[in-house]
Amino acid sequence: MTEEIAVIPGDGIGTEVTPAAVEVLEAVGEFEFVQAEAGDAVKDETGEALPEATYELAASADATLFGAAGETAADVIIPLREAVGSFVNVRPARAYPGVDALRPETDIVFLRENTEGVYAGHESRLSDDLSTLTRVVTSSASERLAEFACEFVEGDEYDEFTVAHKANVMRETDGRFRETVLGVADERGVEADEVLMDAFATHVCLDPEKFDVVVCPNLAGDVLSDLAAGLVGGLGLLPSANIGTENALFEPVHGTAPDIAGEGVANPTAAILSAAMLLDHLGYTEESARVDEAVTSVLEDGPRTADLGGEASTEDVTSAVIDRL
Ligand code: ATP
Ligand code: MG
């Protein structure tokens, strides 16, 4: 059976790097691609940033490849993550040989809780002087994340994970998160240690090799994985996966990059690596590894886009990756 892959390029360089990722997928397998619209452009046309049909498609497809959305990003990506039932955002931050990086030894995968924390809390303006925010942490969501983390490290070259939290201050919410995650690891016989998230921010800069897989609450995962992105040399390289109960959505970490959009010079690496994560998720482990190796090889000595100091176009890099598959 051919898997159905929803393709939602969105705006800006999303419309340039997403087709590049599709080309790579076409080179390694047989999939049925269904195109859909979301973002600023479709909002200008129809009044809706996320048309119902796009939401339904993401909810029913075997997997979704998403590019980026401009000003409407929050109206697009949050419901899309919900459409696929996503409970974890997987964000690898790996430095590649040949690419300038502050910390070339960095190789960390962040598993970020994707449904609650402060992002699911309610903000209120209580007076002219006072605004508040509630923070949501459930044992069930923490447990689901922990189960995923255990499977993730069991199925990989890693055999343990680190949970980052601030349970010494947020005793109730992060306390629940910490206790639940460590509890699940203990039950499953997976080794897990812990780190205070502020200390993590320092340690990861000084000695990134200390960490392999880091499990975080929502906001901390957002911030700390961006910090690690800075250590490995750039937004154009980082993929991500939103894994759901039913299906999953894959997207580059970067946005629409309006400063370079339309010129055909965007780095397609993050989108192509997102496609590699999609392949792995659908069970095409060998194909996923081939894409990863081809990308690594091109980054090492192949054509480069301007963000990496080269002069190549998006298409040059994409063709080079396909040639080396
Ligand atoms: P948005 O508003 O959609 O978040 P942004 O400009 O704030 O857009 P990014 O799109 O993440 O944020 O881009 C930040 C910077 O990194 C920009 O200067 C952009 O040109 C550069 N950049 C991001 N992604 C790429 C890429 N794939 N190739 C080359 N440069 C990139
Ligand atoms: Mg941005």
UniProtKB/TrEMBL annotation:
**Any Pfam family the entry gives:** Iso_dh
Q: Which Gene Ontology molecular function entries are recorded, alphabetically?
A: isocitrate dehydrogenase (NAD+) activity
Example GO biological process term?
isocitrate metabolic process
- Domain Isopropylmalate dehydrogenase-like, by residue range, is 4-321
Alphabetized SUPFAM superfamilies for the sequence: Isocitrate/Isopropylmalate dehydrogenase-like
Q: Which controlled-vocabulary keywords does the entry list?
A: Oxidoreductase
Please verify whether the record's keywords include Oxidoreductase: yes
User: In which domain of life is the source organism classified?
Assistant: Archaea
Q: Which family does it belong to?
A: Belongs to the isocitrate and isopropylmalate dehydrogenases family.
**What is the protein name given in its UniProt record?**
3-isopropylmalate dehydrogenase
